[in-house]
Design goal:
five-stranded mixed beta sheet, alpha+beta, 13 helices, seven-stranded mixed beta sheet, single chain
């Protein structure tokens, strides 16, 4: 990181607007984290991986910052050390030690043919983490096989200097004065038998992307619409016959990448959420009806003026003079309360589809697919993430209860649509 200090990289940066809630919301046993994984064709060379991490960190120094407490806000402070790659653990995504002696807000782990990047959400969203991982893997391919991967898309050139726009907070830059904070009805919560350990159950379905696209197009839907409808169908089936929360809607929360709407190059958090509700007391829905509900709701809620008015409300709250003047201990209490009030309580399950990632041919020779999984949820026992690359789509469920009916029904629904699925678990 010494070389980065001479490239205009700031010694410290504020947390972005979305990240401010994560340090306050975390607890001793829980931290909002996620994991992006590259599944390789050969076993990992740890020495080459370490050198690739060093090069990627010099290019994307944002991941080298550590979290510090200020008098009024948390902030990120640049470090001059670099982390070490480490063997993977049987139980992924345990909370990161944030003490000053540790400090890094991410891990790079490896096991056989797998390289995993685990990230504390206060640093970046799935897009930013994917850029860091693929930039690192491009350097790894060069160091291991001597083949230079041309930069472009999600692959940054490690020979270039870091760019200031990559660590900007894009929320206040694109926020406008018109705001629309919207209250929502609490969602039905999935019940189950809690796992007595902290073990995170991960179930991943791997399928050919072209077959999944074909199934979606047959129903005049996008892949996200189809996956969300299948997930809603599985959750509604589970809700049937239960009494707790029977009057509450089942909601699937769909993150929206705001880079689709604004010319932002930030690698930090720049996403917003739309919670799609379905009331089971109205009727039993067919899959096509659920697809129509998801499409129609998303078409309205993802209009740029509506999205902007909603995330601008968060920016306006942050700029409130009373909140700004409050010491950090008071802000922590307020943000923790807001997270409980407006966080997982408003959704039954998250479905985040990062979409299709174009991996350069030079990398496809050495990478079979990408996976992405969520860390242990705080209250809701299930979350779902999807990513497509190298002709393969990976859909992963993270679960903290023993029952696996939702995943089983979800993947069975895909198979019934003609999409072959290979299921793996941890």
């Amino acid at each position: 990181m010494d070389s980065a200090a001479h490239r205009g990289v700031p010694a410290w940066v504020r947390l972005d607007n979305a990240a401010k809630i994560y340090p306050a919301a975390k607890t001793r046993g829980w931290m909002p984290m996620f994991r992006v994984t590259a599944v390789l064709r050969d076993d990992v060379d740890p020495d080459a991986l370490q050198r690739a991490l060093d090069a990627a960190l010099a290019r994307v120094p944002l991941f080298g910052y550590r979290l510090r407490r200020g008098l009024f806000w948390y902030y990120l402070e640049r470090q001059r050390r670099t982390p070490r790659v480490e063997p993977d653990a049987r139980n992924p995504l345990l909370p990161i030690n944030l003490t000053p002696s540790k400090g890094f807000l991410f891990r790079v782990r490896y096991f056989r043919k797998r390289v995993a990047l685990e990230v504390f959400h206060a640093v970046a969203d799935g897009y930013g983490a994917s850029v860091f991982l693929l930039t690192m893997m491009a350097e790894y391919v060069f160091l291991r096989y001597g083949e230079r991967v041309p930069p472009g898309g999600l692959v940054l050139d490690t020979r270039e200097r870091p760019q200031p726009e990559e660590w900007e907070d894009s929320f206040p830059r694109y926020a406008r004065s018109v705001v629309h904070p919207r209250g929502e009805e609490a969602a039905w919560r999935l019940d189950g038998t809690p796992d007595e350990t902290v073990h995170l159950h991960v179930v991943t379905g791997v399928m050919p992307t072209d077959r999944l696209l074909e199934a979606a197009r047959e129903r005049k839907a996008s892949v996200t619409h189809l996956l969300a409808a299948l997930l809603l169908q599985a959750l509604l089936k589970r809700k049937k016959g239960t009494r707790r929360g029977r009057n509450r809607p089942v909601k699937v929360s769909l993150p929206v990448n705001l880079r689709r709407y604004y010319p932002s190059k930030t690698l930090r958090n720049f996403s917003f959420y739309v919670n799609v509700p379905v009331r089971s007391d109205y009727a039993d829905y067919t899959l096509d009806q659920l697809i129509l509900i998801v499409k129609s709701y998303m078409a309205l809620e993802t209009l740029e003026p509506l999205l902007n008015a909603r995330f601008s409300a968060n920016v306006r709250s942050e700029q409130n003079p009373i909140l700004r003047a409050a010491p950090l201990v008071v802000k922590d209490l307020v943000l923790k309360f807001m997270f409980r009030l407006m966080g997982e309580r408003l959704m039954t399950c998250t479905l985040s589809n990062l979409g299709q990632y174009d991996v350069p041919p030079q990398m496809q020779k050495h990478i079979e697919r990408l996976d992405i999984i969520n860390g242990r949820p705080n209250k809701n026992p299930l979350s779902c993430l999807a990513i497509s690359a190298c002709g393969v789509t990976s859909v992963s469920f993270s679960r903290t209860i023993r029952e696996s009916e939702v995943e089983r029904d979800f993947f069975t629904g895909l198979v019934e649509l003609g999409v072959p699925v290979t299921v793996e678990g941890n």
